[in-house]
Amino acid sequence: MKRVVLLLTSVLVVLSLIVGCSKSADNSDTIKLGVNYELSGNVATYGRSSVEGIELAVKEINEAGGIDGKKIELVKYDNKSDVAEATTLTTKLITQDKVLAVMGPATSGAFKGTIPVAMQNKVPVVSGSATADDVTVDESGVKEYAFRICFNDSYQGTGMANYALNNLNKSKAVVIMDSSSDYGKGLAENFTKTFEAGGGTIVAQEAYVAGDTDFNSIITKIKGEDFDVIFIPGYYEEAGLIIKQAREQGIDVPILGADGFDSPELVNLAGADALNDVYFSNHYSSLDQDPVVQDFIKSFESEYGKQPDAFNALGYDLARFVVEGVKRAEKLDGESVKNALEAIEDFNGVTGNFSVDENHNPVKALIVIELKDGKQHASERLSLN
To answer: In terms of pTM, does the model score above 0.85?
Structure first.
């Protein structure tokens, strides 16, 4: 009898271990994912747009049955566009709220501040829009628990330099950069390197810091130079005013930027008349006739009553990408989700099809958008690979 009891006990122990290692072992009815975004503060437009996309994607996924019957629960916080706050909230989401992964923040500086927390706790953090080159990899190697679904500054800077040289046939550039952000500095560096390597000349390079509003002295200074294109690596708040003041001073050359231009506020700051012969790199365009893009636009307009922007699209893809990782994970823990995210290939997103490379970056195409009277007039997809 003792042998029977011992045998049964051993079987039960083994079965409990097997069940304990399976995804279904989690008795919770929900799967928690963190949302750490700039919902107020100076870059709130990016954060709010990203979260709208995230929430739409999760709503659709939950309506379709969730993940193995479990609904996704978003635990959402506002980091107030503050790097320290973003780091604190990541700690809270991981250690107190027990999320499987954290989405956000939107900007490179804030996102980088969350990575040490992710590494320490072995829970992935994923950004839809952190573009600095060293977000997922630096001189010490790949940051194991950091991912992004957007291309980096090198890619954007290189792409826009090539576009100026080859598509617009320009060869003499002025760069007016945001020297207070990793984003601005990274874009400026890569644009300059590629533009000069392609035979172009950087005639002048001027700098400003976030929050500046009067750029007339910079514009007056560059007016004496011989140039045929301006590149503004920075965010819409300052870029809109630079474009407005440049046009007011009679500068009519093409003006180029990157995805930081993509905000409804750009036209409010610059004025529609000033936004002609303006081009910027982006992740998505509503002009794209791909059925995946058009279906997303219809769903978004139905949910929010407005046209989606690129950050809406990135947020949407971000949520679907993270959920795909959770679906593929062997277990419901951070390490398993990280492993699954690393293995994703041919993800079919609104912002393009992509696979994850060895540095946790997506391999995807760049879109260049032309503005006419403040509205998207044309878009072109460029691949630099």
So the answer is: no
